[in-house]
Amino acid sequence: MTTRLFVLLSFLLAQSAWAGEEILFSAQQIKTLGISSALLPEKKSGEVSGLPAQIVVPGNQLFVVSTPLPALLEQSLVGVGDHVNKGQIIAYLQSPALAEGQRGLLQANVQHQLAQENLSRDLSLWKDGIIAESRYRSTRGAALEAQANLAERKQMLRLSGMSDGAIRQLQSGHALSASMTITSPITGVVLEKFAGAGQRLDAAMPLYKIAKLHPLALEIQAPLSAVGELKVGAPIEIPAFHAKGKLIAIGRSLTGSNQSILLRGMITEGTDNLRPNQFVEASIGTTVVGAAQWEIPNSALARVGGATLVFITTPKGFLPHAVTVLNEGAQNTVITGDLKGNERIAVHGVSALKSKVMGLGGGE
Fold this sequence. Notes:
single chain, 364 residues, alpha+beta, conserved putative lor/sdh protein from methanococcus maripaludis s2 fold, Elongation Factor Tu (Ef-tu), domain 3, CATH 2.40.50.100, 4 domains, six-stranded antiparallel β-sheet, 7 helices
C-alpha cells in the first residue's frame, strides 16, 4: 500500500513539475547535453503516416517478351537495367521452325493461286452452260478453303515476328530464312533477362521482362482502425523519396497474419527515386478536419506518466508542453495540440529534458 501511494505521489509531483513550469538551462548546458531544436514543420491536414508499403509495376505497364517458335538465341542485345524503345531490336534468334512456316506459306500461296484460276475458269464454263452448277460450287468451296489456309499461314508468321512487308516479300519470291528478330513491345526498362546467347529455347519461353516505370503503383498495408478515415483519391506521399500520388483502391478483406487491409496507390511524382519491389513508408491524407496537426521526429517526444510532451525553446531554456499523438510511425509522429505553429522544439537530447522534468537531474 505504501509503495502504491509513493508511485502515485511521484506521478502527481511529476505532472505538477512540467505543467507550465519552465526548465532553466544555460547555453553551455544545452551544448554539453547535445540538445538541439528546430522549428515546427508546416501544419498538416489529417494524415495516417508510417504505413509499410511496396513499390510495384502496374500490370498494364509490364510485358514479358517470349520466343514465338522453338529457336536458338543467337545474340542478346540488351541487359537488365537497359532502356529500350518501342520497336527496337533486342535479340536475334535462329529458328528452323520459322523456315518451315515460310515454306508452308509459299505452298498455301501456290494453292490459293491455283484455286482462284480454277474458280475463274469454272465460273466462265458454268455461265456458258458447259458444266453443272454443282461443279462450280465445289470449285468455289475449294477456293475459299485455300484462301483460309493462306490467311492462317500469314497469321502464324505474324505471330512469329514477321512484318506484313516481309511476308509480301516472301510471297513475291524472297528466299526462305531461319533468322528471327525480337523487338521491344514498349518503351521502357529491362527488369529481367531469362536467357543467354547460345541457349536453345522452346516456344513461348520468356526472354525479357520489360516495364514502363512511370507511373508506379504502391501496395500499402494499413491497420483496420485507420481505414475509416481514408477515401479513394486521397493524397499519398513517400517523404523519404520525395514521391507523391493518390489512393486508387481500398481493399475489402483482411490479411490473416496481421489483420491489415491492402490499399493501392498510384505514384505520379518522384518515380525516378523509386525502384520496383522496393519497401518504403507512406503517408496518406485523411478526411479528418479540425485541430491543426504537425509531423515531428519521434526523437522530439517524451512520455512522462500518461502524458506525451514536446519541449518548446524559451530564452532561458525549455517549456514542457503536452500534445496528443494521432499517428506514430517508425521515424515520425503526427501530433496535435495547443500550438501556434511558430514554436521551436527540442528534437535531439530530449532524454536530458525528460530527466529534469521527472526530477532526476539532467543539468550540470
